[in-house]
Amino acid sequence: MSVRLRDTDSVIHIRWIPRYTVLERFMHWVHTASFLPLALTGLVLFSPLLQCGAGCVAMRNLRILHRIAAVFFGATPIIYALVQPRRMLMHVREFFNFCRYDIDWLKAAVPYYLLGRHGAMPPQPRFNTGERMNAIVMIVGAAVFGISGLGMWFGKGVIPANLYLALLMVHDLAFIVTFAMFMVHFYLAVIHPMMWQSLVSMRFGYVSESYAREHHARWYYGRERAIQLWEQQKAEGGH
Amino acid sequence: MSETGAPRVNRRDFIRLSGASLSGLLLHPSGRALAAGEGELAILYDASRCIGCRACERACKEFNGLPAVEEPNTALSPTSWNLIAAREGVSHGQQPYFNYQCMHCTDAACVMACPSGALAIDERGFVSFDKNKCIGCGYCSQFCPFGIPQLGEVNLLTGQAVASKCTFCQDKFFAADSGVPCADAGGGGPSCAEACPTGALIWGDRRTLVARAKGRVSELKDGDHKDAMLYGEHEAGGLHRLSILLDEPSAYGLPEDPGGQFFLARIYRKIIQPAGFAIFGVALAGVTAAYGLARRNIHMEEVE
Known about the structure:
Structural class of chain A: mainly alpha
Number of strands of chain A: 2
Strand order of the largest sheet of chain B: 8-1-10-9
Strand content of chain B: 5-15%
Number of helices of chain B: 9
Oligomer: heterodimer
Order of helices and strands of chain B: HEHEEHEEHEEHHEHEEHH
Radius of gyration of chain A: 22 Å
Largest interface: A-B, 41 and 51 residues
Helix content of chain B: 25-40%
Largest sheet of chain A: 2 strands, antiparallel
Shape of chain B: elongated
């Protein structure tokens, strides 16, 4: 049997699959662009290293920046909920949907992301366990930031002092949790050598077919087929 | 703990002390290690001698250049650092007056909470305030157990709320430090105490004043004022504004245990905030280490 080479055989065809809408990507980057200045202008209060000395006037102005960024940070999810409520609801349902494969995913994630052992990764839907954890931390964090931040912004001198202090501490604890999560998210999405397609998809909206199959099998094949393939693969014992 | 003899510790104090010593072990000690002590100054207010003439209020405003308000003044504000108020029901209405000003705590929650170093503890014991360093966060007003630092008008857009409070007339002492006599000093100590005509407000060495106050309290107890007490000897590590009360502290709106706010401020400044700052470092180190591992172990050609 002979194979005839055709011209098109020398070209690699990649099927691109849409993953994020324009609005989703836009909202993601507005949120990012407001989270970072919020973190930096908030952090100024945290360390004696950054205490002002002569530059107190500058520090007074940072609080204005913090509030401007906060408006964008808070407005993003609200606008998204108003413009595409059904899609947002769909996302939230996806985010809060966990099953036993997520435990397997977490167990396999460390050898996978640090050592490149990718065979043990169970099939994932459109958002993998880590992405869903990040989303939940950010959703809960944004709500906590919003409530405590608005309380401090408009309640200073109005609400009881002890309530103000509680809001202050909750706001700071929310920062610690969300910033730690953000760093993991930033590392995996931007720095990690295997995940570049994830970053590309948040920029252009598409992932390649092979990436979708490898990283989001339950999205690519559908839940039943993906799990069937995964169990089959495990039964064969080979990765 | 009791002053003399065997220490009496109840469960609440025990938990608090254990927590405090644990955090003391873990954390770099800040502020002063010793309680209010030698060489420190204080103001002593004797409610039994106060006639409510408000000479202290006016002297305070005059020396500190604060604008006058319509009398009688009813509240502390950024421009009223000293206030005489009559408390209803105190000592059966015989001596209802109380002078409200900064208590100059040893364990000052405001100083602990201040992120810019505008509030500081002077070696003479009082809590100084540098308005040029104040960034207007207003945390001091929220942490103070006595509600002393008052916010100016809060700017709703910026959240700006520059606070202000009694400074023990620090300018007199700072002028003396630099060898330049202070203009319009009106005496070398806090203006309120210099102005008081009845000796209800006096100032001087803290230890001397404590001894004197104790003598006065026992005098009052022997007389008509069975509930007389000295407030400020041990509260919040020792106050530098001591008060002789004729009734229990709550009758004057004073907290029984003002030290709790300092503990809270300490947790905030010494645990929560450093943890927040450390997150940056830890995250950077973690990311670098993870990247190093991933680079060494992951071979892209195999993955692709």
